[in-house]
Design goal:
The chain has helices at 8-16, 59-67, and strands at residues 24-30, 36-42, 51-54. The mean pLDDT is 91. Strand 1 and strand 2 form a beta hairpin. By secondary structure, it is of the alpha+beta class. The N and C termini lie far apart (33 Å).
Length: 71
């Protein structure tokens, strides 16, 4: 991240063309009581046995989802 350009569009282009880029599918959920859970599946390891799951896998996403419950 420290090497990414400051400009958001340039950073996005750099990430899109990064040689170590990996595609992933992420499912995240949050309950009104604050419980969170995520599932991540990398395209390179697309098998049922290679699914990552846990509450802290994508904290930015779950925090953003939790914000949707705020008044």
């Amino acid at each position: 991240e420290a090497k990414l350009p400051k400009d958001p569009q340039a950073a996005l282009k750099a990430l899109e063309n990064h040689p170590d880029k990996q595609e992933a599918r992420i499912t995240a959920s949050v309950t009104r009581s604050g419980d969170a859970w995520c599932i991540i599946r990398l395209r390179a390891y697309d098998t049922e046995k290679m699914v990552l799951s846990g509450a802290e896998l994508a904290p930015g996403i779950t925090q953003a989802l939790a914000q949707t419950f705020q008044d």
